Amino acid sequence: LSTMKCKCVILLVLLLTLYVSSEDQHCMNNAMKDISVEIGDDNPQRVMSFVRDEPGYQVNLQCKWTLQPSNYDKPRQMYIRVPVIDFDTNDVSEAQCNVSNTKADVFSLKLKLNDTTYRNESWCSNKSVKVKSQIVNLWDSSYKLALEFRSDDKQVRSNAKGVQVDVQVLGRDYCHRTMLFFEGSCYLITPEPMTPTEAFSIAKNYLGNVFTVPKNRNNSDFFRPFIQRNSDRAGEFPFESPLSLTGSMWTGYFIDILSSSPPAVFKSAQYCDPQAGCGVALRNFSVFFKSSSKFEYFDRCAVAMHWGSGGSVNFTCESMESKLPAMIELKQIPATKGDLHPQLFTTCDTLPSFRLFPTTTRPQEQQLNLQRQQLSLQRQQLSLMQQQLSLQQQQLSLQQQQLSLQQQQVSLLLQQFNLQEQQLNIQYQKYR
Fold it and tell me: DSSP secondary structure string, 294-360?
């Protein structure tokens, strides 16, 4: 009997082990709590509460997963994507979106270091505008990635599918099949178009920055091997180039415009340097101005790159309201943890305020910039004077209109007086 009990226990352990390490970790009818999942390098693991058919997920689910790479003996990067969010309600505000709220369906992602949460994202609505992709650096085994799904206490729509999460460890010197590894960095193109401001903000989800050419490389020397490497990946598994280098996409460059008649070609552009605390730096290269674009004094444009035939790349100055895909660069996590390595993942996620001129250390350029600034201020003053004169003209015109109206009123009164006088004369003639 004891032998049989032992065999049953072993069988139960094997079944539980098989269940926990299976590719899909579901939470549909019964809550699963504190499930540890080892994520492999090759195929993505799905950790989810995702139902394909009726009746959908159940009420009062409370499912938790703790994720970690297999063979966890060195720093690793995890790529987390949320391709499906299908909750039964959509009227939950961001302020109400937390796992302690039993009146909302909530999915949360938490990154913990020694039981201290330092990164937390939550989704409570299908309409959430939050980016549904994340890069997470796990420097050692003390970093824990926790996912949690909690359904509310009522079911408004019976066929709601829930949430699906795909998790994968980025391969060393490979990144991901949708990314290009090149010279120590992973490059990706956002699947959806966005404004430049949105692109800067989204870069933090990838622990990276909107693409700029490395400071120590000129454009042609960088793009030639970059394009070649992307092409070579088509001959490797999964036998396709990871990046679609066609059309237009945002870069991390921008230009502050100081004239209503910009030049046909700008000779330089600004960017935020993550290695200098996101301070504004200047890079010299040609950026074409679109004649159809309209800009005012002290306006700003964002720089987009256009991929042409034969590997040519051109840059144009585009409106800040335009929407394009963005290329994001993120550093691959080093093989060993070091004190300086976290600086590799400084994200410049906000465009700086408008600057009259880029900073420079050369006195002649400083003097020239000062003169240009004075001219620009004089232009502003002249423009203000023109506006004041135009306002005065409008006021004079209004006064003339008022005088003309008064004249018409006096004329009308005279006509009425003459008419009354005629009527009195007629009555007088009758009584005579």
Answer: ---TTEEEEEEEEE-GGG-EEEEEEETT--B-BEEEEEPPPSS--TTGGGGG----SPPPP-SS---
Do 164 and 174 lie in one domain? The reply is: no
Please give the Cα distance from 84 to 23 (Å, whole number): 17
Where do we find the tokens 């005012």?
Answer: 296
Residue 414 forms part of a structural domain:
no
Same domain, 160 and 177: no
Q: Encode pLDDT of 344-369 as tens digits.
A: 889 999 998 876 554 444 566 567 66
Residue type, 259: S
- Show the tokens assigned to 49: 């509460």
Distance separating alpha carbons of residues 242 and 178, to the nearest angstrom: 5
Q: What is the pLDDT of residue 261?
A: 74
DSSP 3-state assignment of 85?
A: strand
Same domain, 288 and 373: yes
Closest CA to 274 of 203, 222, 219: 203
Structure tokens at 393: 């003209």
Mean pLDDT of 23-35: 68
How many whole angstroms separate alpha carbon 395 and alpha carbon 361? 49
Q: Report the DSSP pairing between strands 279-289 and 299-307.
A: unpaired
